[in-house]
């Protein structure tokens, strides 16, 4: 994991979403709804979905979307490891 870019070098939308997914994982590990993630990260739903699809392609996040458009998302094991490195390191500074 040492070859990760600093969190500050990521797309701001991706960084905001990762921060909220990390927050969800750190506060009990339950997946958050897409609506809650959008509100907490300050992203519109289309931007949120685009970012989640990118993170899913990179195998950093997982998501479930129902036919009615509701859904939830969470960090994968790889995403947890990356966020632990990014956010725990930034907390220590």
From TrEMBL:
Residues 27-62 form the HTH iclR-type domain. Transmembrane segments: none annotated. Gene3D superfamilies: Winged helix-like DNA-binding domain superfamily/Winged helix DNA-binding domain (1.10.10.10). It comes from the Bacteria. InterPro entries: Tscrpt_reg_IclR_N (IPR005471), WH-like_DNA-bd_sf (IPR036388), WH_DNA-bd_sf (IPR036390). Pfam families: HTH_IclR (PF09339). This is HTH iclR-type domain-containing protein. The lineage of its organism: Bacteria, Pseudomonadati, Pseudomonadota, Betaproteobacteria, Neisseriales.
């Amino acid at each position: 994991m040492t070859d990760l870019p600093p969190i500050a070098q990521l797309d701001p939308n991706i960084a905001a979403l990762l921060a909220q997914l990390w927050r969800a994982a750190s506060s009990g590990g339950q997946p958050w709804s897409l609506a809650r993630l959008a509100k907490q990260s300050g992203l519109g739903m289309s931007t949120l979905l685009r970012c989640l699809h990118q993170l899913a392609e990179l195998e950093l996040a997982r998501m479930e979307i129902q036919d009615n458009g509701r859904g939830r998302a969470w960090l994968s094991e790889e995403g947890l490891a990356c966020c632990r490195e990014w956010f725990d390191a930034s907390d220590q500074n």
